[in-house]
Amino acid sequence: MKYFHLIWAALFRRKTRTILTLVSIIAAFLLFGLLDTVREAFTVSKTVEGAGRLVVTSRMSMQQPLPESLGARIQAVPGVSNVASANWFAGVYQDPKNQVISFAVSPSYLDVYPEIVLPADERAAWDRTRTGAIVGAALAKKFNWKIGDQIPLQSTIFPSKSGSNTWTFDISGIFHGKDEKNAGLEQTMMFHWKYFDENNAFGSGTVHWYVVKVADPMHADSIARAVDALSANSDHETKTQTEQSWQASFIKQLVNIGLIVTSIMGAVFFTLLLLTGNTMMQAVRERTSELAVLKTIGFSSRSVLAMVLAESVLLLLIGGVIGIGLVAALVPILAKNSGGMMPIHGLGEHTWVFGLVLMVVIGVIVGLLPALRAMRLNIVDALSGR
Amino acid sequence: MKKFLVNLGLVILVVVALAVWIKLPWVGVVALALLLALWLLLTRAGRQASSVTAVGVSTLRQRLGSSAVIVIGIAGVVGVLVALLAMGDGLSQTLKSGGRDDTAIVLRGGSVSESQSVLVRDDVDAITQAPGIARDADGKPLVSAELVVAASVKQRGSGEDANAQLRGVDAAAWALRPGLKIVEGRKFKSGLRELVVGQGAERQFAGMQPGDDLKLGNETWKVVGVFASGDAYDSELWADRQTVSSVYRRGNSAESVLVKLTGAKAFDGFKAALASDPKLKVEADTTANYFAKQSEGLSKVIRVVGIAVGVIMAIGAIFGALNCMFAAVASRAREIATLRAIGFRGAPVVVSVMLETMLLALIGGLLGALVVWLLFNGYTASTLNGFNQLVFRFKVGPDLIWTGLKWALAIGFIGGLFPAVRAARLPVTTALRES
């Protein structure tokens, strides 16, 4: 630490060069931070609430409905503590562009999803209202909906019995996500399955998927098999999987985010290695005589090595921290402007840790060659300019 | 103060030059290059510039490290940019190319895509009666009511679950899509549980070779053929509509009706006829229009992401290039001052430094584009389109490589401009005295 000012002075010996290099490093880590945030957003998070949940869909196709009567039979499977059902609704508000992620759910849905926080009085009001709906806080804010509003939604799939596609709902509650990780939930809307079923022009008595809460997540596999056995060889065979693998299967099919991010970052960091390596090489080369003086007045070869290494790591750390810091400032703005498309919940600790490790590793790699050169410097040769 | 004004002027120059550069078509670029070549060859200052450039280029070897930084840095930017744009282009082309002006698709009113639409038997019959529909040799209207189902299948290789689009079609479906050819095996026979798969689906999913048995919707199907169309249909499995509808219990409903029109001009009449029927609540669109709309959202997102990533990387590369060229100019300060002392003017010095940087940038751009072309042209990837997997190919076309090279030259221009001006403005006496 006592050499800090010496390292600092060496780093800013040529201000232009250091600042130009810093901007490149900042750009690289800015990109790293942004891409890593996106990758995180698309990685299924392992939440405590999600641990004991299974999703039951039709084995034939995710859109294929299952009979509503199956719910009671699933509830009877040993080890199942609760069952809820949901239907796709595919609602749009006023304009086809304003998609509302909406589901028709059974009354037990909120009990299975404790991360949906709804005040008790609003919950009671919702249970009383046949056409009641509860909306996420972010969704309510987007369309300026308030409790008590009556809103018309068009379903792009289900016409109502009146023949039109318009369904009306009374907003009886506004719910919040339990913590930041559940921010995506606040973009959704739920209403009673009963209302949906009575008013739906095609088919009744069906649901699209069941959510099963198991008492002990350790037994999830055997319970999933028991649930599938209920409908084996019937015309509505089911596929039961953990909530995590259900979500993961969607994301994996959507895009291989990991591969894209890794390739881009590979290209970026390879370039960065070359660039900062070049800067450090230049910095040491033009300081040859100064380093020789340091050695003459008694600095050991090893401390010269350490000082050059520290210089390059410091360079990377300054640039990297500014870069990721910029991301931390940008992410909330991006999340706001994406209109809920991006389930970004702030900059993760993981990104910081991984970023810092990268900074130190790159710093050491680029500093190593110049540092070795400085260490092996022969005082007499260096001072005489040979 | 003067220095500040000069720098401000340079920044404004950069902004204007970039704005013009983005708009410039290739003819303009060629004209610019020709003008530059003429100037270099014919005027006195130009000849001076070319000889200074030759000296600069000949010393590149001694600065291998920093030259490589510029080349590799710009290659990285161009590579990533071109790869991301190639993904977007490949995707939108796959989605778009299935469309034609003389075929129309009819969906239920308000539906954005097939999977959201439902048409009942009466709708299908009424649509078939509409005017403007072409007929085949036997006088039957060329109409195919179609049903799409998201079928659960396994990925080839990993064995993971995936959704494939299973399309039930009527006999006229083949005539409605003249671009679609059977490349292996034969068409399915109506009434049998037989499947014909797209070549993308054959590659992507397990159990899709002709002769394979496949379990879909609780029944066993036989794969009897493979078709190729080069568009979104390539990711689908096709079967007889009645069979699909009975296996998936869809009754008599269909999701869309595809019709062949007597010509592109017949569309307006056809659409008007459907709109005037009070019993029908449907919307017709030409397939060209419909597929273009389908591709809009996703390919726009990819384009925006590609350009955003490219811009951030380009900023890094610009500063890397600035750094290297400042160092190069500093190491040649004496030489440049000598040139100026013996009568060379400022302009040739500026031009030579810029030419050198842009040459390195061009090499970098070509390198990046070449690597991406070798690695990614024709690379197959897949994504979700609605519920179902869509297989598409990256397409690294000449227009994308051109875009990449334009970016490379722009980075070289900015990275070279400031060091070049510094070189020309350095007081001769100071530079000569500097060691």
Annotate the secondary structure layout:
The complex is a heterodimer of chains A (386) and B (435).
Chain A: H1 4-11, H2 15-42, E1 53-58, E2 66-67, H3 70-75, E3 80-88, E4 91-92, E5 99-105, H4 109-112, E6 116-117, H5 120-128, E7 132-136, H6 137-143, E8 150-155, E9 166-177, E10 188-192, H7 193-199, E11 206-207, E12 209-214, H8 220-230, E13 238-242, H9 243-254, H10 257-286, H11 288-296, H12 301-337, H13 349-375, H14 379-383
Parallel strand pairs in A: 5-10, 7-9
Antiparallel strand pairs in A: 1-12, 1-13, 2-11, 3-5, 3-12, 4-5, 4-8, 6-9, 7-10, 8-9
Chain B: H1 2-23, H2 26-42, H3 44-58, H4 64-96, E1 103-108, H5 121-129, E2 143-154, E3 161-169, H6 173-176, E4 181-185, E5 194-198, H7 199-204, E6 213-216, E7 219-228, E8 236-240, H8 241-247, E9 256-260, H9 266-276, E10 282-286, H10 287-331, H11 333-341, H12 346-376, E11 380-385, E12 388-393, H13 398-425, H14 428-433
Helix pairs in contact in B: 1-13, 2-3, 3-12, 4-10, 4-12, 4-13, 10-13, 12-13
Keywords summarizing the entry:
heterodimer, A: 386 residues, alpha+beta, six-stranded mixed β-barrel, two-stranded antiparallel sheet, 14 helices, 13 strands, 52% helix, 18% strand, elongated, B: 435 residues, ten-stranded mixed β-sheet, two-stranded antiparallel ribbon, 12 strands, 56% helix
Task: Describe what you observe in this structure.
The complex is a heterodimer of chains A (386) and B (435). With 386 residues, chain A is α+β, with helices and mostly antiparallel strands. Chain A has 14 helices and 13 strands. Chain A has a six-stranded mixed barrel. In chain A, a hairpin with a 6-residue loop joins strand 4 and strand 5. In chain A, helix 2 runs antiparallel to helix 10, helix 10 runs parallel beside helix 13 and helix 12 runs antiparallel to helix 13. Chain A is elongated. The relative contact order of chain A is 0.18. With 435 residues, chain B is an alpha+beta fold. Helix content of chain B is 56%, strand content 18%. In chain B, strands 1, 2, 3, 4, 5, 6, 7, 8, 9 and 10 form a ten-stranded mixed β-sheet that branches. In chain B, helix 2 packs across helix 3 and helix 12 packs antiparallel against helix 13. Chain B is elongated, with a radius of gyration of 30 Å. The two termini of chain B are 28 Å apart. Chains A and B meet through helix 2, helix 9 and helix 10 of A and helix 4, strand 2, strand 3, helix 10 and strand 11 of B.
